[in-house]
Design a protein that fits this description.
This protein is an all-alpha fold. It is built from 20 helices and no strands.
Length: 428
Amino acid sequence: MTVLFFFVFIVLLALGMPVAFALITAPAAEAVVRNEPGVLTQIALRLYYGIDSFPLMALPFFILAGELMNRGGITLRLVDLSQAFIGHLRGGLAHVNIATSMLFAGLSGSAVADTSAIGSILIPAMEENGYSKRFAAAVTAASSVIGPIIPPSGIMIMYAFMMNVSVAGLFAAGVVPGILLGVSLMILTAVLARVRDYPVARERATWGERGAAVRAGFLPLLTPVIMLGGILLGIFTPTEAAAIAAAYGLILAVFVMRTISIRQLQEIVSRAAIASGVILLLVGGAVSFASVVALSGAPQQIANALLGISDNPLVLLFIINIFLLVVGMFLDAGPAILILGPILGPVFIGLDVHPLHFAIIMCVNVTVGLATPPMGLVLFVAAGLTNEKVERIAWEMLPFLAVEIAIIFLVTFVPAVSLALPNALGFM
């Protein structure tokens, strides 16, 4: 095999073929042209065995848990909780938007779900309180990228599966960068609120009101505590944690809070099953693609090209950050992880970059790409919620993107930001 299938893959993507099918079709087409039936067999086998994996069962369970939490009215409780504690600040609703995204991240781990669920509630409320639509959409989109960074995270599970790193260790590595990103966005929002004289959302809540908000949000917020506590303490595996999260969400929404009826469960499970099928097909296609990439010798060619530029890991990390930011402008986070992880990971691990450190660099980078024009998915979701043009929202997002890029480089060049917690928990 040559690397011709790379160019075929890019052409197929440009023509609009879904990523999962392009991953399978591109190497298969070259194998047919070159009459290499053994490669075709390998593609088919790797497609099946790539999906037939116990660790990957965590993905559909996490997706189901997120659907249950989202449809069960949890978002409103998180908004109320955030309002009670920080709604009195200038620019309070913008702060509430970011804080709710941080709380929501521990439940769903999805940037798109975050944008849709929180944006549908807070964007109209922000507009009524004197914020422009584009600023409300920009804050929602910018803060939603915290979702896949603070665990649980679907893209982290994908990366861990593809690169054989610890899911629990990667989850632990994402906690501090995710919180740091949220706090940094809130600091920027505070500055913008004073400069633009944004309104105060409400009077300072009494401690009684705050207590009521905590009680209302307590049971939903136990979800990440149960999941992450169990994983990090070694009580159960990430796959078991995902199943427990789905069961807990089901009991909470149907029997305790009673915000979901038995009849609604069929639709919720169907949506989760369809989303899981799409992701697992993508994973299977990526495993096939990665096997052909290894067979073609492309990773070694890329390693030689990078080492031809410099053998300094810091210089190469700077270059790869720029590259991943550009990739994130055009490719969704999941496909970017699945395609580039097996190619770039071994190169930097060979340069003594810790596997967990490079993993979190990649995950944070491609996640920020979800909010980066021209193809950032959460930008389009926010635009759909506000009927604003994507380019207007993107222009308003520039200060937030600058902060997020600064956090990326901080995580890259100060390894302790992401590795201190995994090290303290014994994952290194």
